[in-house]
Amino acid sequence: MAPDQLSDLLSRCALRDQKAFAELYRYASAKLFAVAVRITRRRDWAEEVLQESFVNIWNHASGYSASKSAPMTWMTAIVRNRALDLLRRPREVELDEEHEELIASLPDDAPGPDELLRQSTDASALAECMKQLTGEQQKSITLAFFHGLSHGELAQQMQKPLGTVKTWVRRGLERLKDCLEPRNA
Amino acid sequence: MKLESGELREKLAAEFVLGTMPARTRRRFNTLLKQMPALRRNVAEWESRLLPLAAALPEIQPPARVWTAIEARIHGKRSSAARAGFWQSLSFWRMSSFTSAALAVALIVFVSLPGRQAPEELPGRMVVIMNDLQTREPAMTATWEHGRQGERIVRLRVIGHAEMAPGTAWEMWMLPGGDQKPVSLGLVTTHETQTMVVPASMAARLDSATGLAMSVEPAGGSPTGLPSGPVLYAGNCIKT
What we know:
The complex is a heterodimer of chains A (185) and B (240). The two termini of chain A are 33 Å apart. Chain A has 2 domains: 90 residues, Rna Polymerase Sigma Factor, Chain: A; 88 residues, Winged helix-like DNA-binding domain superfamily/Winged helix DNA-binding domain (Arc Repressor Mutant, subunit A). By secondary structure, chain A is mainly α. Helices cover 75% and strands 0% of the residues of chain A. With 240 residues, chain B is α+β, with helices and mostly antiparallel strands. In chain B, 40% of the residues lie in helices and 25% in strands. The longest helix of chain B has 25 residues. Chains A and B meet through helix 2, helix 3, helix 4, helix 6 and helix 8 of A and helix 1, helix 2, helix 3 and helix 4 of B.
């Protein structure tokens, strides 16, 4: 679905059009659920996140502005923020065993960053820019983004000191930004 | 925190969007976001940069119950506004009592016509067509007749496909008319056809009810003995 079609659905939602909302759900729910499942790593939490997010989308559809962000970006942000807030809530310091196991198992059972980016059509510019990062920068950013890992968890996962991982992330993000928007080139 | 510094805002916004912020920082950042438009702009920029990555994820179909729950919440929210109007609307009560009075007159005329054999059991059959208060479409019908020993057999029919949110129950109420409070008839299901038996002790009140209503309640039914959740369906009683 084209972004302007999605924007149109969102503005109809703002007018309390339930059919438009159902159509929006049909189109976006599986994409957004994938985002929530990756971050929360628990189906029940992901379901809760998706439910909360769509109620939110319905209630705040009038606040969506097509000039400020693409519709999928707006909805993805709502889902990611919900998921991250939920994820960060119960375990500020330590991970339980099940959790650690899950994290450990992720890189194996999930498509790798390169593969994910190849599959992506919407993110081609971003994919090109990701290629310009070093391997560590790329890995730390994709792990954080897709799996909702905090700096501490990234360090644990990549078995590197916290400071090193933080630097990879920061430099990686800076490079991405420069690549996506070259400064007065 | 010197958030006037564009560089710092930029760095924090990037971390927030990437999701690497620890819990406490995240909470503080959320508060700051509400207060600082400039910070919101930084975040929006980073969202536009990074969130397209999410399109790379293979889709996962959520189970149907998620949509059911979303619909119930949205529906419930809108119906609670409708509920206030419904329960408080004088015109509703006035109109329903007028209708039943008119019908009662018609019935008396009918039974007193000479030469006609009156039906064995009065008032015969009652019909209620309950509308979805939101769509104004018929959503449920109820009819009842006399059972043995004075009880009433209420047959319910759910029209179309209805879904109940998990952890909730549907409770049926009879509206005695005037300013009397609704009386619970018990819980119902979403099954297309179902039967309720109303004991003889409540039969007279049911027969003289002006209408029926169905509300969404916590599992197990209303904790207060009165409708506590949104009223989804309601309709007036009609004698046939």
